[in-house]
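Issue: ligand-bound run for MRU - logging full I/O for the record.

Environment: standard queue, default settings, no custom constraints.

Inputs:
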Amino acid sequence: MKVDGTPYRTIWLGADGTTVQAIDQTLLPHRFVVRDFRTMEDAEVAIRTMIVRGAPLIGAAAAYGMALAMAADPSDAMLARAYTVLLESRPTAVNLRWALDDLRALLAPLPPAQRREAAYRRAAEICDEDAEICRRIGENGLGLIRKLKPRDSSGRINALTHCNAGWLATVDWGTALAPIYQAHDAGIPIHVWVDETRPRNQGASLTAWELSKHGVPHTVIADNAGGHLMQHDQVDFVITGTDRTTRGGDVCNKIGTYLKALAAHDNGVPFYVGLPYPTIDWTIADGVRDIPIEERSARELSHMTGRTETGELATVQILPEGSAGANPAFDVTPARLVTALITERGVCDASEAGLLSLYPERSHAA
Ligand SMILES: CSC[C@@H](O)[C@@H](O)C(=O)COP(=O)(O)O
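Outputs:
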């Protein structure tokens, strides 16, 4: 996607052929800064501190982390260490494990001298594949948007989204936002209600930024406003991404997604989820019980960072001294609340039968 006319992906290989570069998402929307990752540890820190975030981008960054590890030391010991260190950087997005398993299976049988080149080549392929997958999710989601009739008299289609599942969360295009970009580009009058997404504000900071860079009309709302808007016919569909979706169609996504799905269900508003195949965890049937939910620091609740009127970035405390905070970063929306899953292969029911209709080769997986 473009930033002020210049095409960008979220992560790419630097001109020296070794350093990996990525947009620093902790500074958006106020500063556009590109970071260099020179070591596997740089990639690990970037994932853990959310310089890069969003399930598909976490997978891509982990793949490049493995490549950086192999550039430093292509031994078996380093391969095992890089796998473990990177896997522990964040627990919920299954794309991380998917990418590391993919790289390890490719690299382990190779002689060490061939591992560096193979790892960089595969990391670049994963990035290209993610961009193409997301473009296809966009096409498949566009088909659904074309069938919607506006509920209110504005003549526009109103989407509601939570967190950031746009191009910043992937390598390019996004998952939830790809159909919205394609609808906008096709001339469909579409407007997006953007949940601010406390505590880290991925909606207010990232989704709003990338929609404005693409010229998509949008309005940021407090996280709790969505139910009210749905009761008053101001939301035609809800669309989110996901960090892990079970083989039965339970959707794990940013904390607060479940409440949006409940409100959508109560108001007869379609609730769609965009996802690429590496986000499906075929090993888990019950998402509420079995998906690991990341607990993040209470500091994300107690402090907020923003731009002052004089243009500097400043961090302020908003909780009283001594109040405890709890910060579960994700929740699980049961499949029964999901109208449909939108994948690169097409649209299906949020159920095992639905997913297997698109991925029949997985029917053997337990
Ligand atoms: C295409 S991204 C889907 C999800 O990764 C996204 O909605 C999300 O929850 C991101 O969480 P984050 O904690 O910002 O990494």
